[in-house]
Amino acid sequence: MTAPALILLADGAEEIRLLRKRMQIQRPELPIHLAFLDQCPPSGPQVISALASRGTREAAFVPMSLTHAVDVGQAASDMFERVRAAHPDMNLAMARPIGPAAELLSILDLRLRNALSSCHALELDGLVLATPNSGDVRGQGLIARRARQWSSHHRLPVAMASVDGSGSSIAAAINLLREQGRRAIAVGALFLTASESFMAAVEQALSAGALTVSAPLGADERIIELVMSRYSFTAMDMLDAVPADEHLGDDVITSSLELVAL
């Protein structure tokens, strides 16, 4: 049985290309591709067309959003409907986004420690958890939970902020902490890549007097594990949706554990 192609769906950035490269080295038997939602090629339709021309029958998109937990967003939804209409003979699926998973806090802590070390910070009494946007409804709740967990872990107040205006601005979050008497404030950036949104977050934070801003999470091994988890779950659903004789011979039995190990 051939595993569905895995397509990382993201905004164009070098970190995503590095992530795909690392994944492909680890899983040489699994076809892993990139598709971008911004102006960077290749787009989702271009990737699916190329796969179809090579005879690939199945593919699963994994949205790389760290703020959306269920809803993949309008741009991704529209793209997916277009490729399904253009390739009705292919079995295509959209996985859940990466979302604000608890595992991301460990990566965020490492990035922030490095940033604080680089700026020789001697004191820290407040944190801002910055995101590119507020995410979907479920994502908003999870981001708030991650902020509480982060606050409890460090025993420091944490204010939330988003860059796109869907929530409090970074400047407003820093000012809120200052009103509480906090002066040494750092910003933890829950961003996957050094996108334009991330650069805007850095500019806003430093202009508002933040000590430093953590680097993007990047191509971390724990993110690779999250991607594979989303992909494996969706691949199981795809298998359930297609008659067994289209996948397997009469004398072949495949367990769920075997598929997850793909």
From TrEMBL:
Signal peptide (from-to): none
EC number of this enzyme: 4.99.1.3
Keywords from the UniProt entry: Lyase, Metal-binding
Database matches in InterPro entries: CbiX-like (IPR002762)
Name of this protein: Sirohydrochlorin cobaltochelatase
The organism's taxonomic lineage, starting at the top: Bacteria, Bacillati, Actinomycetota, Actinomycetes, Propionibacteriales
A GO MF label: metal ion binding
